[in-house]
Design brief:
Layout (H helix, E strand, L loop, with lengths): L1 H16 L3 H22 L8 H7 L8 H10 L3 H12 L10 H13 L5
Length: 118
């Protein structure tokens, strides 16, 4: 047991003072996988159903074109898509060619209502 502990300490010291980029990348990747797994398993937060945003926006669909409605349906197909859209267009204030400016503002407003649940 004592030899195993010495081996672990020696390996830790070696990797600390002589880092290996490939090994560090691999360790970081494995750490992210494990943390995401534990996060999914132990998650007790209330989550947003992504179609809730679509239902909220459906009242304003008279102002949307059919392509925009299809794009909104694509955006709201999953929470990950909603998160990605929120970060890419709403938070960064970028314009998307698939939505008119006013309709983009409506979508961002609808997402912002539920941003704490994403």
């Amino acid at each position: 047991m004592k030899k195993l502990l010495i081996l672990i300490v020696a390996a830790a010291l070696y990797f600390h003072y002589y880092p290996n980029e490939k090994l560090n990348d691999w360790l970081f990747e494995q750490k992210q996988v494990v943390l995401s797994y534990f996060s999914e398993v132990t998650d007790t937060k209330v989550r947003l159903k992504s179609d809730k945003i679509y239902q909220d926006l459906s009242r304003d669909f008279s102002h949307f074109t059919s392509q925009e409605i299809a794009y909104v349906a694509e955006i709201t197909s999953s929470r990950e898509q909603v998160k990605k859209f929120n970060e890419q267009y709403c938070r960064s204030k970028k314009q998307t060619p698939k939505l008119q400016r006013d309709n983009l503002a409506k979508v961002c407003r609808a997402i912002s209502k539920y941003s704490n649940l994403l």
